[in-house]
Amino acid sequence: MAYQIGSGCVSCGACADVCPVGAISQGDDHYVIDANSCLDCGTCSDTCPNGAISPAE
Ligand code: SF4
């Protein structure tokens, strides 16, 4: 399991600053989460001002 960033992302970078393992980086269209590094902690989801981050299904 890992969190995912959806189309609501405006590339503000807030989530990348709070991820404890540095799993979030700028992608082509919006920020992306490296599923292999993600700890499923949910910190990024709590931080996103647009609610764009949710658990993978
Ligand atoms: Fe990083 Fe936690 Fe978000 Fe995973 S859930 S990308 S470990 S902040």
Automatic annotation (TrEMBL):
Family annotation (InterPro entries):
4Fe4S_Fe-S-bd, 4Fe4S_Fe_S_CS, RnfB_subfamily
Which Pfam family, giving just one, matches this sequence?
A: Fer4_7
Recorded superkingdom:
Bacteria
Keyword annotations from UniProtKB, A to Z = 4Fe-4S, Iron, Iron-sulfur, Metal-binding
**Residues in domain 4Fe-4S ferredoxin-type?**
1-28, 29-57
**GO molecular function, a single term:** metal ion binding
Name of the protein = Ferredoxin
Originating organism:
Vescimonas coprocola
State the taxonomy lineage.
Bacteria, Bacillati, Bacillota, Clostridia, Eubacteriales
